[in-house]
Design goal:
Layout (H helix, E strand, L loop, with lengths): L2 E2 L3 E6 L10 E5 L5 H7 L1 H11 L1 E4 L7 H11 L3 E2 L10 E3 L2 E3 L9 E4 L7 E12 L3 E2 L4 E3 H7 L2 H10 L1 E7 L13 H5 L4 H10 L3 E4 L5 E7 L3 E2 L6 E2 L4 H4 L11 H13 L7 E5 L7 H14 L10 E5 L3 E5 L2 E2 L3 E13 L2 E4 L1
Parallel strand pairs: 3-4
Antiparallel strand pairs: 1-2, 2-3, 4-18, 5-21, 6-7, 7-21, 8-19, 9-18, 9-21, 10-20, 11-19, 12-14, 12-17, 13-14, 15-16, 21-22
Helix pairs in contact: 1-3
């Protein structure tokens, strides 16, 4: 498939399955300001995101925080801060963050951004400043394909019972680790009052702990309709944040040892993250394993190149990260906050 527009050429898709239209790859016809091109072709961009889930812009030189901010702001109507997110990140520019601060030895399973929250980004943007020396690919999974291959009983149960997330934060003044964020880092404030206000406005129950830490509980959707197409989307973090996602000693001895040491201090009922159904019922591990299996079989990966800019519809594409070695810097930004007002989601 070759499509030419004034600013760039659509060279094809990332998916190797000819039966599936998934993730366009776009290259410039000549040196071009990508931010200006995104504004010029905004309607076409929106149509392609709905059709393909995401667009990889390659060769446009988005390789610095300031360029990332300018291009990302052209890719959506309204920026969204990463407040209340579950991964440690660093702010590098207003509205621009490192994609994660998780150790390079760990794999991050594909997931939707902030699907546990009352408000989540409709669009995600990523830019590659420094590709890893080895590894560090971004696995992507079609949300449509996930829905197609999950058993309807699984989808129906998650839709009916919803999903609750219990989270433990370290003391707000302490350092974050690969296992736990501080509450100050997560909520981007050292004020307990500000945290309490944010939680109240976002339907999050909270409990301050004697240690100075924080425990929260929030209930989100298991399945959500896409705000534009109305498609049912299996939209939650259960497969990623349930304790069954932690590997066993047989599959990953290094990480398993770290988790055992962590749970010596924080047993499962006080784990830094755990997931139940919204009614408090436990989830079936085989069911969660089935979700992970479908995601693993459906995923598509690509090698980052310096200057790559990736734009995703956050309700149509799950994203993750593979292990890597060497320096690696991928930037991220969130846009067009989406939340439920009644039965349907509305995006700003």
């Amino acid at each position: 498939m070759i499509v030419r527009l004034p600013a760039f050429t659509v060279a094809g898709t990332l998916s190797s399955d000819a039966r599936e239209d998934f993730l366009l790859v776009v290259q410039p016809n000549e040196p071009v300001d990508l931010a200006a091109a995104l504004r010029l072709h905004s309607r076409w961009i929106s149509e392609m995101l709905l059709a393909y889930g995401g667009i990889l812009f390659r060769g446009f030189g988005v390789d610095s925080p300031s360029t990332m901010r300018r291009v990302a702001e052209a890719a959506y109507e309204r920026a969204m801060p990463y407040t209340g997110g579950n991964l440690p990140r660093q702010t590098v520019e207003k509205g621009v963050y490192t994609s994660d601060e998780i150790s390079s030895q760990y794999r991050i399973t594909p997931h939707y951004a902030m699907s546990y929250a009352r408000t989540w980004p409709a669009r995600l943007a990523f830019a590659c400043v420094t590709p890893a020396k080895r590894g560090g690919r971004m696995p992507l999974c079609s949300g449509r394909r996930l829905m197609k291959h999950l058993h309807p009983k699984i989808v129906d149960e998650f839709e009916r019972r919803r999903v609750s997330y219990v989270r433990m934060y370290a003391d707000g003044v302490g350092p974050a680790t690969n296992q736990r964020q501080t509450w100050a880092q997560c909520y981007q404030t050292e004020s307990r009052t500000d945290v309490e206000t944010f939680c109240r406005l976002n339907g999050i129950e909270l409990e301050w702990l004697p240690s100075g830490g924080l425990r929260t509980r929030q209930t989100g959707h298991g399945v959500a309709p896409h705000p534009i197409t109305g498609e049912r989307i299996f939209f939650n973090h259960a497969h990623l944040l349930h304790t069954s996602a932690w590997p066993t000693a047989e599959s990953d001895a290094t990480r398993a040892a770290a988790i055992r040491q962590f749970l010596t201090t924080f047993p499962e009922e006080k784990a830094y993250y755990n997931v139940t159904f919204g009614d408090g019922g436990k989830m079936s591990v085989p069911v969660l394993d089935e979700v992970r299996r479908v995601i693993a079989e459906a995923r598509v990966t690509f090698d980052w190149q310096r200057g790559d800019f990736l734009l995703l519809d956050n309700m149509l594409v799950l994203h993750g990260r593979e292990e890597f070695s060497g320096d690696r810097l991928i930037l991220s930004a969130h846009g067009d906050p989406c939340s439920y007002k009644g039965a349907a989601p509305l995006c700003a």
